[in-house]
């Protein structure tokens, strides 16, 4: 029987395995993908200091630490159930069953693409799929495309597509409907983008952002927004254009675009078609929590964490005995935070199983999580630091659920 089975070989799962195995635990990992790294593999962006963050290289660094620890990773293996039976966990997969004393769920996040008429045509994909095709599989998603959805994720990946030589004709709002909500409202989108104005490629955008953060400023900008959009890396950023329909007979051939007012409303809108051969839809990320639900976790909903997350404490322990979580399943943050969370989870598991370690080691790892979070270039959602602190209070939700 294993000491620890980790579900997910992304940044959190790999770092959990390293810290647990370094303290003498028998650790194995299962992942449904055919190679390790998870979403880390597709990441490629430039830090404010000019250095490039390359997810493939970061994955290789983690694997270099994995190798001497003799940790087995089972690829192309999907977990479809897990149960606690007689003080041990049974993990059911398409490749057989495993028994383990503890389980760490590090399944990451899933994308939430916003529906657009015509989105079932070949050539339509999530922005994350385009990232994997381009950065991991080295395949261009097409020759000329459009990105629907304006958020920090779509900006980061659109830049990656451009660096790979893909022609992006424009970035547009999704169509206004029940599911798109604020994602289709120019003023709301502008407000969310202003949180990342320090990363804007244009000096004018960086210096001008503080003057438009108020309601008056956002009204002014969205009312007089340029007809052709504002250029970001040479790509038109269209705050007053929405994607009405993706057109094509057997695959994507064009997209119908309409002008909206500053509230995102369509009134006798004039439309036109833009010729493209692929479309990326970006609706953001949500924690991938299905296995935690099967395992019996309770959940809380926090917008600042990306949706529903399993109740857990700062040591990544859930209220279910012998079950831990780490990474984006606990809330959407950067890969660097996921790695540091994984270290905490691995240490907490080792401590709970009787491993000997310096008393301050877990506290040092917790401090590393906080400092990494505070220094993160991108915070996917506002208030995440205060929300985390509130959730991890001694008398917080975890204590109540545990009782």
From TrEMBL:
Q: Which Gene3D superfamilies match?
A: FAD/NAD(P)-binding domain
What protein name is recorded for this chain?
FAD-dependent oxidoreductase
Write the record's keywords in alphabetical order, separated by commas. Oxidoreductase
Q: Has keyword Disulfide bond?
A: no
Residue ranges of domain FAD/NAD(P)-binding in the record: 3-149, 234-342
What domain of life is recorded for the organism? Bacteria
- State any single GO MF term: oxidoreductase activity
| Tagged with keyword Oxidoreductase | yes
PANTHER family (UniProt xref): ANAEROBIC GLYCEROL-3-PHOSPHATE DEHYDROGENASE SUBUNIT B
């Amino acid at each position: 029987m294993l000491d620890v089975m980790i579900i997910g070989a992304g940044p959190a799962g790999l770092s959990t395995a390293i810290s647990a195995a370094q303290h003498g635990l028998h650790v194995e990992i299962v992942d449904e993908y055919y190679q390790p790294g998870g979403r880390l593999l597709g990441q490629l962006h430039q830090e404010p200091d000019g250095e490039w963050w390359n997810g493939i290289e970061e994955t290789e660094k983690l694997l270099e630490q994995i190798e001497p620890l003799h940790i087995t990773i089972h690829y192309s293996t999907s977990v479809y159930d897990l149960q606690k039976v007689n003080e041990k966990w049974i993990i059911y997969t398409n490749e057989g069953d495993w028994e383990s004393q503890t389980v760490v769920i590090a399944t990451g996040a899933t994308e939430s693409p916003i529906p657009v008429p015509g989105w079932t045509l070949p050539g339509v994909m999530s922005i994350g799929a385009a990232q994997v095709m381009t950065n991991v599989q080295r395949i261009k998603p097409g020759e000329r495309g459009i990105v629907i959805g304006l958020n920090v994720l779509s900006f980061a990946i659109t830049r990656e597509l451009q660096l790979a030589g893909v022609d992006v004709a424009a970035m547009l709002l999704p169509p206004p409907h029940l599911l798109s909500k604020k994602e289709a409202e120019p003023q709301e989108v502008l407000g969310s983008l202003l949180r990342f104005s320090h990363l804007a490629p244009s000096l004018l955008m960086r210096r001008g952002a503080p003057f438009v953060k108020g309601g008056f400023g956002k009204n002014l900008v969205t009312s007089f927004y340029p007809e052709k959009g504002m250029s970001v890396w040479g790509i038109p950023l269209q705050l007053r254009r929405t994607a009405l329909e993706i057109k094509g007979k057997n695959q994507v051939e064009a997209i119908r675009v309409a002008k909206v007012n500053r509230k995102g409303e369509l009134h006798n809108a004039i439309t036109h078609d833009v010729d493209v051969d692929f479309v990326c839809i970006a609706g953001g990320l949500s924690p991938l929590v299905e296995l935690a639900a099967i395992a019996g976790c309770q959940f809380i909903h926090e917008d600042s964490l990306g949706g529903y997350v399993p109740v857990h404490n700062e040591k990544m322990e859930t209220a279910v005995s012998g079950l831990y979580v780490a990474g984006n399943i606990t809330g959407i943050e950067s890969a660097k935070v996921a790695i540091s969370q994984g270290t905490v989870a691995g240490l907490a598991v080792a401590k709970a199983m009787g491993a000997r370690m310096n008393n301050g080691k877990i506290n040092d790892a917790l401090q590393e999580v906080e400092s990494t979070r505070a220094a993160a270039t991108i915070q996917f959602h506002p208030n995440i630091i205060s929300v985390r602190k509130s959730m991890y209070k001694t008398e917080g939700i975890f204590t109540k659920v545990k009782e």
